[in-house]
Amino acid sequence: MNIFTNQSVDKATKDQLITALGGSETPTQITIYPTSFKDKDKILSYLDKFNRGKKKADQVVYTDLAGTISSMTGGIMSAITIVLVAFAGISLVTSMIMIAILTYTSVLERTKEIGVLKALGARRKDITRVFDAETIILGVSSGILGIIIAWLLTFPINAILYSMTELPNVAQLNPIHAVILILISTILTVLGGHIPARMAANKDAAIALRAD
User: Fold this and answer.
1) Which residues contact residue 196 at a Cβ distance below 8 angstroms, ignoring those fewer than 6 apart?
2) Distance between CA 212 and CA 204 in Å, rounded?
3) End-to-end CA, the chain
4) Which chain regions cross the lipid bilayer (predicted)?
5) Which of 133, 137, 131, 134 is nearest to 197 (CA)?
6) pLDDT, tens digit, for every residue of 131-143?
7) What digits encode the pLDDT tens for the residues 62-75?
8) Between residues 212 and 146, which one has the greater pLDDT?
């Protein structure tokens, strides 16, 4: 009889209960506690090699709890990453719109300058290049500023994370990623400012000179 549930049990269930309580000399499982993830990978590799070529009944069945937890947390992190990427995409679109507005405002404020340049013989593509150059400078400078701020923030973030988890250098800025971000910033500013630049190039010189 099962003393926990007061129910009668058969011999097989009785043997399982006795084994679970440590009353059997035949081991049913072995729990291994590796001291690091590197050691864990070595153990898993050894077990995989041991099972290779053997029948299913002769193989060692194991459960990688750390791997299971990592896969679960990886799925959660993937979902969080998707949400953050969506917010980043919205921010990029908003930035493009703001850059277009700023460039268009600059065009309106410098209408007379555009007229003077055209009166002096500047071509449409010359006017476009002037405003495109401004947006490129804006994109490169803003990208570099963002990278510098992100790099400076890694120090307090790493200090906080180290005090909480004792994991060093969790937040790192990859130089390749930094260059890519600067390029993306530059491309977005050029795309956002090119249409107002074309509008400036299409202005008539006489009308531009008469503008207040």
Assistant:
1) 100, 103, 104, 106, 107, 131
2) 14
3) 101
4) 76-102, 133-155, 175-193
5) 131
6) 888 888 988 998 8
7) 888 877 887 787 77
8) 146
